[in-house]
Amino acid sequence: MEILNAFFVAPFVDMGSDYIFFAEVVIAGVLTGVMYSLVALGFVLIFKASGVFNFSQGVMVLFAALTLVGLMEHGAPVWLALIGTVLVMIALAFAVEWVMLRRLVNQEEIVLFMSTIGLSFVLQGLGEMVWGSNVKALDIGIPSEPFEVGGILLNEFDLFAAASGAVLVGVLAVFFHYTRIGRALRAVADDHQAALSVGIPLRTIWIIVWSVAGMVGLVAGIMWGAKSGVQFSLSLIALKALPVLILGGFTSVPGAIVGGLIIGVGEKIAEIYWGPLFGGAIENWFAYVLALVFLLFRPQGLFGEKIIERV
Amino acid sequence: MIYREAGQFKTSYATDQMMFPILQDRIFMILVIAVAYLIPLIANEYWLQAVLIPFLILSLAAIGLNLLTGYAGQLSLGTGGFMAVGGYMTYKITTAFPDLNVLIAVLLAGLLAALVGLVFGIPSLRIKGFYLAVATLAAQFFILWLFNKVGWFVNYSPSGTITAPPRTLLGIMVTGPEATAPVRYLVVLTFLAFFALAAKNLVRGRIGRSWMAIRDMDIAAEIIGIRPFQTKLLAFAISSFYCGVAGGLYVFFYLGSAETEAFDIALSFSVLFMIIIGGLGSILGSILGAAFITMVPIFLTNAPPLIGLSMPIDLQKHIEVMLFGSLIVFFLIVEPRGLARLWQIAKEKFRLWPFPH
Lengths: 311, 357
Fold this sequence. Notes:
The structure holds two protein chains of two kinds. Chain A is mainly α. Chain A is built from twelve helices and two strands; from the N terminus they run αααααββααααααα. Chain A has a single domain (2-297), classed as ABC transporter involved in vitamin B12 uptake, BtuC. In chain A, a hairpin with a 2-residue loop joins strand 1 (146-149) and strand 2. In chain B, helix 5 (102-121) packs antiparallel against helix 10. Chain B is 71% helix and 3% strand. A two-stranded antiparallel ribbon of chain B has the order 1-4. Chain B has a two-stranded antiparallel ribbon with strand order 2-3.
């Protein structure tokens, strides 16, 4: 009974008795979730358009943030550094398509997956070689004053991050639905061969998708970097984005966002209310187990397309 | 010229179904094993300790993963976790039963790893491909967290480190700080030789064939009467057994003492690299891939000074990482089916040489 009580009753009593603290936990979770969503979004974009499970997305986040900080350290104003970084990410997309994807067309998924891990080594070495491997502070002038709403402590920076995440998702949604390129992207995501046969250039699409993923990575890099400094550990958030992906489905943009929020909030609540029962630090695996349990009931994720198999 | 099977007639079913049907292959295998056993006579301590022992142990882990991923088609990123089970359980067993032969402890730990593999293999019935890969990451993170948090696994040592206690085998010190590199090398080599042959034998039999059927198309395999759940679970169990044994050897015969960091996700990825560079669905490929992945970084570290190039250490480190990544991409582009495929092509060429038409 003791144990049952500790697991199933006490945490909920805690939540109810100190609801302001609970609200703060949830908000902190939502904000972390937004960050996860941003990284997961990059994965989903590339997976949809090219079927590549892009493990280097995390390193792309790091690379973009490193480039931005590096340019600013060399005296470039923020706007110039941003433009420069975007150009670098587009150049990267071209390079990836020319050197890698073009030569790996029609290979098995796992080969493509491994090649992106190889790419992540290259990017990591390159970024740290050019810009140095020490921890860098990233300050692009986002205000970060804490303030209170109804007894709940909030931070301007977090709100800014959440808002820019939302704006980014909105822009992407509009881009996907109402532009010519967006339609082409959706066509490719739907069926490669059909898209090719109506004359959509697959390689151009890949370049565009990798550029967009690079820019999403840049936004994620700015947010994480401003919060905890630009350093190697930034690339490890890719590992946190994986459970988000399986929760939301590999092919679903809304899935990435909802999944990110669920994982962010779930992880924080679990850590604070159930963590002490396990001896703490359960954040590392909780997201995976949550996603795993979830998958047992819905193998294709929350919003993923239903997998139909034929012999 | 020499590599030719002309004149080798098979007059019984047994000879027809041999593991190495061509006489030259058999001689070559025996030669390779003999040379491997004689290497301690010429190799120095550094080569044995820093290159050959990790290479052999990781080959074993790579064979384990290749059984699961290459033969049964279940992508797994939890290798490091299963190896950790092997390492920590070997430690627990040897410290709890000091009189037990250490080799038996390693094998028992392998069995425990197989049990853990069974549990984490259960989702494979419903989940496939990358979804499964991410699900196996749960094993990786959960197992390491468990070993970090629960003091029982490390005998309540405050540093959380497990250290291989000194143990003897036939009167010779095989583990602990006093064991010499050649002795440990020979033990590890024996393990690898035995289990590599066992795996080779396994994959050509009924079990291996049912794994391949599941890999190629699981629904079709189910229709011809292969039970997918049992087959997949068996693949998880045997693969984890291999990884567990490799993990036990890794701690006891290579590292000497270890923390959970030794088994982190980087290890899982490098074992996965080994089987992809080496060749999915090939025992030989696992070994070739392990050789490639363990030796290339050592080569990259030592090559610049050899040709008289000197540069700052951190710059060299970064270039190494980049070169390593580029090499992987290069190999995947040139031969996505791995080094084993190159070896096969070379054999075909030899067979026809000098008249290729």
